[in-house]
Structures are given as C-alpha cells and as structure tokens.
Design brief:
Chain lengths: 361, 148
C-alpha cells in the first residue's frame, strides 16, 4: 500500500465511524458545545500589509462528541466570517480507565495553550493567543493539526496528584505560498511528511488547572512547488521543538509560562542549513472580586532574526507585550478588552481588541 | 414530686435533643434500588463528577447533578468535588472540549433524578437524606456530609 492509499484508507475509516449508528444502548452519551465570539479590532502605526488595519471577526466553534462503552467520536468545526474549517475529527478507543487511543485529525499535544483551549475562545482569559501557539493559517510557526494516531494516558495517585502523557504520530503540514497547510481528510492525495509530538505533565491535583511539564516534537515539512521557498531551492524543513511549560495559580494569581527551543534544518539539493532560536511567553492573570480578571503577557524570542525558518513565517513576532481586562458578565459570558504592542521583523504595530465570548449550553 | 418533675423535664429535654440531632441535615449518595453499586470511594466519586470514566462491574458509572437546591449543590461541590461552582463549570467545559468526555447530566427537578436513577442501574446522585428517604425506587449508598 502506497502512502496515498494509506491516507485514503484512514479518511474512509474515520468517516465510516462517524456515520455509524449508536451501538452502546444506555451507555451512549452525546455532548454538544457552542463557543461563539465577536471581536472588533483596530491596528495603529501600520506599515505592514500582512496585518489587517481593523475590522471584526465573528466566530462560532461547534464541538460534538459521542461516547459509548469504549468508543468515543469527537468533531470540532469552526465557522467565521473569514473561514470555515473542520478542526478536529477523531475516533477514540478507551483502554483502561485513563488511556485513549485516537485516530483522525487532532491538535497535536506539544502546544500547551492550544490543547488546553482549542478554539473555545471563552475558555482562554486573553483574546489573542501567544504567537508560538498560533494556528497554521494565522501564521503559526509550529504545526498544530496532525492527522494520524494520538495516545493519551494518565495516572491518578491516591493523594489526587497525577501524571498525564500524550504522544502523537501522523502527517505534518505542507509549507505553501500562504504558510503551513495541514493535511486535509478530504484531500488525502497530497504529499505530507511525518510528525511526532509529545507532552508529559505533572498535576498536583489531577482535577485542577495546575500543571507543569515538558513537551516536544519533530516535523518533516514538505515544501509545495508554488511556495516561495522552493524557488530558493529548499526541498523540505525538519523542525525540532523542545520546551517546558507551567500553568500555576496561587489563590487569585495565575501564571502561564512556556519556553521553547526550536531548531530547523533546511534540506537543499546540495546540503543542509541548520538554524535555531528560542521563543516563549509568560502570561500573568489576577482575579479581582468575583467577575474581573486583569492580565498581561510578554512574548519574546532570541536568535530568530537570522533564521531562514522565521523568514518563511513573516508574521512571526519577535516581541509582544499586552495588557487586558476580562469581565465575566453573566454565567458563561465574558467581555474582554486588550491592548498589545507587537514587534515583527519588519514592523512595530499597536493592536486594540474588544471581544464578547460565551459558551452554550 | 419535685424529683418526678425534674425527671420528666430531663426526659423531655433528651427527647428534644435527640430530635434535633436527628434533624441535622445530611447529604447522601443515592442510586436506584436495583443498582448493584454498594460503595464508591471519595476518589472514584470525584473522578466520576469530573467526567472521568469510572467503571463498576465493567459498567460505566453515570453521575447526575442535583441542581434542585442551590445549598445542596454548593455543599456537594465544596465537600466532595472540592471546588467552587464556577471553577467546576469552567473545568467541565474545558475537559469536554479537550477530549469529548460527557459532562454529568444536570437536573433541576428532583423527581427527574429519581426517574433517571430508576432507569440507569449504574446512575448515581446526591440528595438531602430526608428527600432520599421519602423517594420511592432509590437507595442510599453512603453519607457524604453532615451538618455540625
């Protein structure tokens, strides 16, 4: 079986599973969540056509899951005034109490922020996400959507502390003229390299938010013939990511920290070019009263200016500072205001955002 | 005569105290009367209410939230689940979005919980003991909380 046949088979299995009728009788459960959000934004000091000068974004994120005795199906679909995309489509089989093997398209585990909030805007305190956690179609540098196998497991100890481990292997995105482009289930014939990602976390209370861990991944990113980099002679990019993260809270104070080492090998017909740099962020949140949260985030990178990889991701910011305030106006509704100063390789811009977000039901 | 009056008063006082102690509010874990569930540990209970699959006789425990009384709900979340209501709701949304795990079904009418417990042998919920003793078709598994 050649790789294309393998991809077609994978896509067929997934669609068949989702078309399957309920088989678990009384044990079958269905879940549906809707995360809507509306954001208006403005950008100042604009001298870069890569960034929109202002406007609005309306997003509806739909999540559906089916849970049987051992089988679980999960789909996440995003509809907005800018795009519509099937984000996740995965089928899982449960082994033991805390182990699930998934097949399908998923968010790979080495991006902490992404796998904690997915597209549920209401669940993240800030409006924007750190650039290193950005989606591929928003200029993200690290692959997010992988199609393949994902194993998630965990261990809860008697004192309620525990470990979580996730590892995935699958098809990496393709680098095209518009940036990274994930493998699409309905277009399984395109050429994609392999991707491997993992995360290991320790949780002092398995049921809470606090955790600390290590994460990493390796992706073989093929270059599309139309991508500008192929004109420079790059055939593919091998991206290595190693990082540490922490999400911790002390009473009303919460801190999220993530530091990543990134190494890229650019494969040319006559050899390799190897670059590396560091990138990370720290977000601090403080809850005031019962409904208000003030927060700030600092994003920074080191050594990225001279790397060929970052030249492929023009929106990648070297530095960003932002401040924001969130008001939880009612059960499951929030209003958030955010001001950011972003510095990329070519520009320095100010961004203002106001957002309403919610979750139903 | 005085000693008889004293004795009678003492007996009445003791009876009154006994009634008051007996009336102290208790929260109990309940299931259907035909359920094979005999006990669940505090950790299993916490797992179930966070949507983690807990099995009994290889069958999935199905937790039901009793939101018919805000005080009952608050006591259960604070003493058994060990979280505030707001943090609990947000955590459930997050866990469900992450892995599709089903959230515990929520009922605002206690009669609906009793019906659900009768229907699902591996269903569990919590009630005031007085309500559990009045309800038909369910049984008490264990005491979860008692008023001091």
């Amino acid at each position: 079986m050649n790789p294309s046949d393998c991809k077609r088979l994978l896509a067929s299995i997934l669609f068949s599973l989702f078309a399957m009728p309920s088989q678990a009788g009384d044990q079958a459960q269905h879940e549906f969540l809707l995360f809507p959000s509306v954001e208006i934004f403005d950008t100042t000091s604009l001298d870069d056509e890569l960034f929109d000068s202002g406007g609005y974004i309306g997003i509806a994120d739909f999540m559906y899951s089916y849970s049987g005795n051992r089988l679980r199906l999960l789909g996440e679909f995003v509809l907005s005034n800018e795009e519509s995309e099937l984000e996740r489509l995965q089928a899982g089989w449960q082994f033991g109490e805390q182990t699930m093997l998934w097949v399908g398209r998923f968010h790979q585990p080495s991006k902490y922020w992404t796998t904690e909030h997915h597209h549920g805007q209401y669940l993240q305190t800030s409006i924007s996400r750190p650039e290193i956690e950005e989606w591929e179609d928003e200029g993200g540098a690290i692959p997010t959507h992988i199609t393949g196998l994902l194993l998630e497991t965990g261990q809860i100890r008697k004192d309620s502390s525990g470990y979580q481990f996730a590892v995935s292997v699958g098809f990496a995105p393709l680098l095209t003229e518009s940036g990274l482009e994930p493998f699409e289930l309905w277009d399984p014939s395109s050429d994609h390299g392999a991707a491997f990602n993992f995360r290991l976390a320790f949780l002092p209370d398995y049921f809470g938010n606090k955790q600390i861990g290590i994460l990493g991944g390796w992706s073989d990113i093929e270059i599309d013939n139309d991508a500008p980099t192929s004109q420079l002679g790059t055939e593919s990019v091998e991206l290595l990511q190693l990082g540490v993260y922490m999400d911790w809270n002390w009473e009303r104070l919460r801190t999220i920290v993530n530091v990543n080492y990134l190494q890229s090998e650019h494969i040319h017909p006559d050899g390799k070019i190897t670059d590396d740099f560091w990138s990370g962020y720290i977000q601090v949140e403080y809850t005031v009263g019962s409904n208000w949260t003030v927060y700030g985030r600092h994003e920074n990178s080191s050594g990225e200016d001279d790397t060929e990889f970052v030249r492929l991701i023009p929106k990648f910011p070297g530095r960003r500072n932002l401040l924001g305030v969130r008001w939880d106006i009612a059960t499951s509704h929030a209003l958030t205001l955010e001001i950011a100063d972003t510095e990329t390789a070519t520009s320095d811009i100010g961004q203002y955002r106001l957002q309403w977000s919610a979750v139903f039901p | 005569m005085i000693s008889r009056l004293f004795a009678a008063s003492l007996i009445l006082s003791l009876a009154l105290c006994w009634t008051l102690v007996g009336a102290a509010q208790q929260v109990v874990l309940v299931t259907g009367e035909n359920s094979p569930i005999e006990n669940l540990s505090p950790l299993e209970l916490r797992k179930a209410y966070f949507g983690i699959v807990v099995r009994y006789d290889d069958q999935i425990i199905r937790p039901f939230r009793n939101s018919s009384d805000s005080q009952l709900s608050r006591i259960f979340l604070q003493t058994v689940v060990a979280t505030s209501e707001r943090a609990y709701e947000r955590r459930l949304f997050s866990l469900t979005l992450k892995s599709g795990r089903p959230r515990p079904e929520e009922f605002t009418d206690q009669d609906d919980i009793v019906r659900a417990l009768r229907k699902y042998p591996y269903g569990i919920s919590y009630m005031w003991r007085s309500d559990a003793e009045r309800a038909i078709g369910i049984k008490v598994i264990k005491l979860l909380w008692q008023e001091n």
